[in-house]
Amino acid sequence: AATTPPSGCPMHSDSAAPTNSAATSAALSGCPVMRKKNADAERGGCPVKRPAQPVEESAVEVINPDNMMPAPNQEPADGQAASLSTERVASTIPRAGDGLETWTYPSEQMFYNALLRKGKGDGVQEQTMSAVVAIHNNMNERAWKQVLEWEAMHCDECAAPKLVRFVGRPEELSPKARFKVALGLRARPFDRHDWTVDRCGKEVRYILDYYDLEHKQREDRLPELHDINSVPSIEMDVRPALDSPSALLDRLKMLITPAGNPASGEVGSFAKTPIDPPKAPPSAASSTEIFGRCRDAMAAVSQCEGERECSQAQISLTMCIAAQVCSAEHAAFRALKGSTDAEAVAA
After folding, report:
1. pLDDT tens-digit profile of 252-309?
2. How many helices (H) and strands (E) would you count in the chain?
3. What is the per-residue burial (b if ≥16 Cβ within 10 Å, else e) of 263-280?
4. Which residue from 66, 80, 208, 259 has the fewest beta carbons nearer than 10 Å?
5. Residue 191 — φ and ψ, nearest 5°?
6. What does the pLDDT look like over 70-101, one tens digit per residue?
């Protein structure tokens, strides 16, 4: 089991279960979870960054930069065959910056309208929207709990982190996902989100990769909001992006200490059964040694510009850390991709 965090940590806060309520027009929705095999049916509600396209002035929509979504639309769509609920559920995810206490999830009607608005409504049936919304809300709650597992390491610095903004990036592989796919450890994730967390004045970016475990789909059931075991076919890998030495140190702590890895969703106060924590190999280097040996790779991460350059820099840093923390897997990857780390990064 994970080490118990200090009493001031957000993981010790017992948030009251949110209730259904009609939200004000200022409250904005979260991002739905999308399975790749059914992306056309579900992608429409996700705030995905897309290149700006020239449009007529009359067609311009005001987009909220925190979730890349227009104002909520609760009106029935043209040709809609059945009525949909307009009730919205308050999340337990604290919201930063605008005076609202928490983020508010979209209603069934809002989800349906978002799909149609983005041209993804073909084949979508109104009667499925309640399940889509339930899964979406549940996955966001699970993701936030995993973020709090990481944030628990900074309780002395900030006892109450908040979510500032988020964006979907389903077409962009994160460096870690690319590493997993190249090594044959996982199929390509069906979705990716980047969440920005306010750590009491310091913005920290988290990467969330979503994997579809087809062999567990028969175990899925309609989830309650805080049920962490209802949708075992969706696996999330949640971790801080390697944007700073602090994020790197957090990842190292999870690798070489008995606290375990929160990204599995099965550690800390959220686990239902005790789990034996992974043990570092006897030859694993200390964090001080790793920092010293990977100093150049860390500098490249902090100085990179652009998605491709930063992605390659983060992969190089991951390879440097892996060479010392999990040498067997590192050697297997190099054998698979070539004789040098540069070749692996360029692949």
Report:
1. 888 765 444 444 443 333 333 333 344 444 444 566 777 778 888 877 877 777 666 7
2. 10, 7
3. bebbbbebbeeeeebeee
4. 80
5. -160, 160
6. 567 888 888 888 999 999 999 999 999 866 79
Give residue 27's Cα distance to chain centre.
21
Pairing of strands 102-104, 88-94: antiparallel
The sign one gets for the Cα dihedral 86, 233, 95, 148 is positive
Between helix 175-183 and helix 327-337 the angle, nearest 10°, is 80
Q: pTM above the 0.70 mark?
A: no
Helix or strand run (H / E) with residue 116: helix 108-117
Give the pair of three-digit tokens for residue 251: 């990842």
DSSP class per residue in 215-226: GGGGG--PPPTT
- If DSSP codes are grouped into helix, strand and coil, which group holds residue 13? coil
